[in-house]
Amino acid sequence: MQKMSIRHLPDNLVNQIAAGEVIERPAAAVKELVENSVDAGATRIDIDIREGGKALISVRDDGKGMSPEDLVACLDRHATSKLLDDDLLAIDTLGFRGEAMPSIGAVSRMHIATSAKDSGEAWEILIEGGVKSDVKPTAHTQGTTVTIKDLFYATPARLKFLKSDQAEYSAVKDTVVRLALAYPHVGFRLVNNGKTVFSVSPSSDELFDCRLERMGQVIGKDFAENAMMIDAEREGIKLTGFAGLPTLHRGNAQHQYLFVNGRPVKDKLLGGAMRAGYMDVLARDRYPMAVLFVELSQRDVDVNVHPAKTEVRFKDPAIVRGLIVSALRHAIQREGQSTASTVSQYALGRLAQNKQAQLNQPQSPGLPWSRTQYGSGGGGMSSASNAAYASLAEKTYNAYEPIPSARHEYAQEPQSQDQDLTTYPLGAARAQLHECYIVAQTAKGMVVVDQHAAHERLVYEKFKSQMEDGSGCIESQGLLSPEIVDLDDTIVSKMVAQAGNLKKLGLEIEAFGEGAISVQAMPVLLLGKANPQQLIRDLADEIEEHGEITGLEERINAVLSTMACHGSVRSGRRLTLEEMNALLRQMEQTPVSGQCNHGRPTYIELSLDEIESLFGRH
Q1: pLDDT band with cut points at 50, 70 and 90 for residue 109
Q2: Domains in the chain: how many in total?
Q3: Which domain holds residue 230?
């Protein structure tokens, strides 16, 4: 008789295998433990790690704690308090799999001490390599402390594949930061090798206010000062949070935080939707900053698709994506005339550096305005000489008057002499520097406008509106003979599903059998500039990678951007005051005029306080 080749693995080995899926690195263990603390109603969570979490992980909370029976059960596989009934689609908590605690215990030395609320007693248990000790009384305040030592000591192969202590610490900190952003009513503290590296206090403010305050603490003051509020809803799906102005961006997606029903997730669909929302106000190699929260019925999202709970699956992903894209674009249209304060702060910093460098240089004896020669200290010019120079300066100033010139085609009707243009957001034009920059005075300070970048945005928006007819579609041109593109049959169905959206952008496609696409028409702007075969294949690749299509719109916008660049007021063009003021007024009427088509600021703004600080008046 043939011997049976299939056997049941021992529980300890099963737990070690599960640990490889759920706990792939120290950050994953920290995530599981902190989420348990949040679910336990904690208002304060302290995390202590050593050697990036390899040597020690300790998570202490002030939550509801556990009874002795629960303390034993929490270390059993598939035992959980997070699922009230047997419905896996009705999950209101962060944890649900019932595998994390026994998996961690199977590959480490773990100690748990806990005290249930109002119980007046505390208990502890040890588990080493999956072997549990008896429950014993101990001393502990309300809440739970889980201490993990020598993570993966029982699975040395896994330990070898961990990264450096610094890399593992960075992953732990990122995990804690994301959870801190999701739960501003909870205080968090992270200690690494004995040093506190992150600490935020719990907030009792309204949700939007405490979220913004927490974002300022976690991401930085710059984000809190330059964030656009997001609050939108569609078909029972709610999107809230904050997104940075287009001129506040980074070189990677590290500062994009996405949450679904309170769970931090890294989702391609959500990331792609964010990219689409900022499409023509940000360069392709730059990334916006945002903290967005998606809330929907538990039955419309599957959170049980990934062992580490970092991915989710939506019942209707198109609605979620459309909501994010439209909410971001609406916010940009609403506040896109503004530029991030970081732009002005950067300019002030450079000015301060240059000023300090000049002060550190020895004064040239030939400069008549040397502080040492004419300063207010002892010596220097007589009062009579000072008066003479002051009189000369006043005559020189009064001799300057604007030079009248012919009106330019872009100029509007002259403004009334009595109208105070400084009350406008971008103020009244006072001068043009180097035939490139417009200096305007506002009620609160001044602005400096890059005339080419500003006008490029204005022309670009004009081209975009002209390209759309009454139906909101880009003009298309039918091909003399359809272009047939061979694709995988699964991609063909996805492409055809996008046919309606593509038609609005001027690209008309149809299915051609089971494994091909027929291109019937192309956007007029791309004729002669894009190969239909390559275009379709690029769009197909984009669907495969991101589950969405934005490449066609980006190509059209790129052509429009080039046209706008060549059709706008160039640097080196001298403008009259009338023309400069006309440009400022048009910028104020254009929703996204705060940045050019490439995401660069069109102007910087300096308050009077900032200007005076440059001259030491404070």
Answers
A1: very high
A2: 3
A3: 207-335
